[in-house]
Amino acid sequence: MNADLVRVSKRLSAVLRHRPASVGLALDPQGWVDVDTLLAALAAHSRPVSRDDLDAVVSGNDKRRFAVSVGADGRERIRASQGHSVPVALGLADRQPPAVLFHGTSAGAVPSILRTGLVKGRRHAVHLSADVRTAQVVGARRSGPVALLEVDAAAMAGSGHRFQRSANGVWLTEHVPPTFIRRL
Ligand code: HQG
């Protein structure tokens, strides 16, 4: 994705996950907003995004962060697939996770994580990756060396922890206690 589209993707993330009110919008309870309404609101707040760029970000995004669908009113709507800090009910069903999941983070965070487990912070859920490579990329967003953690998801599910998978393949859970975490 070129630099302009990365900028558009970040702009959409900010509005659709964290600050819809910054452009005068409210998301519906499931996090959707009408595409035309969104584009008009961005333009009205001096942050215009063209429909072509929105489509390019939705379909070309490395991580498929956004989903477009047709609402009950027959109009196109868009939402972020995960990562919200504003309250939304994504309506994801509980699913049996793979036996192991992975989490990439900064090495400096590991002692704290091994004490209190993985906590969701301001996000809705702890984000886990299905493969080590993705976890590596997630961890590399932090400064300093990356630490890779393996989560015993089978054992967690066995003791009643619930998991969901976002539309773009991120595994979500409420909290990962330290006993299920192993540093790779
Ligand atoms: C850490 C990106 C100390 C955790 C990615 C992480 C992902 C703790 C940071 C998505 C801790 C939170 C989410 C504890 C957790 N002590 N540190 N007890 N528990 N942490 O960004 O998982 O590009 O909220 O390790 O691809 O890094 O936005 O979570 O380093 O899918 O689409 O606290 O964000 O997606 O950071 O990333 P984040 P994350 P997007």
TrEMBL record:
A Pfam family of this chain: PTS_2-RNA
InterPro entries per record: Ptrans_KptA/Tpt1, RNA_2'-PTrans_C, RNA_2'-PTrans_KptA, RNA_2'-PTrans_N
PANTHER family: PUTATIVE PHOSPHOTRANSFERASE, TRNA 2'-PHOSPHOTRANSFERASE 1
Originating gene: kptA
Function statement: Removes the 2'-phosphate from RNA via an intermediate in which the phosphate is ADP-ribosylated by NAD followed by a presumed transesterification to release the RNA and generate ADP-ribose 1''-2''-cyclic phosphate (APPR>P). May function as an ADP-ribosylase.
EC number(s) on file: 2.7.1.-
Top EC class of this enzyme: transferase
Name of this protein: Probable RNA 2'-phosphotransferase
Similarity annotation: Belongs to the KptA/TPT1 family.
Keywords on record: NAD, Transferase
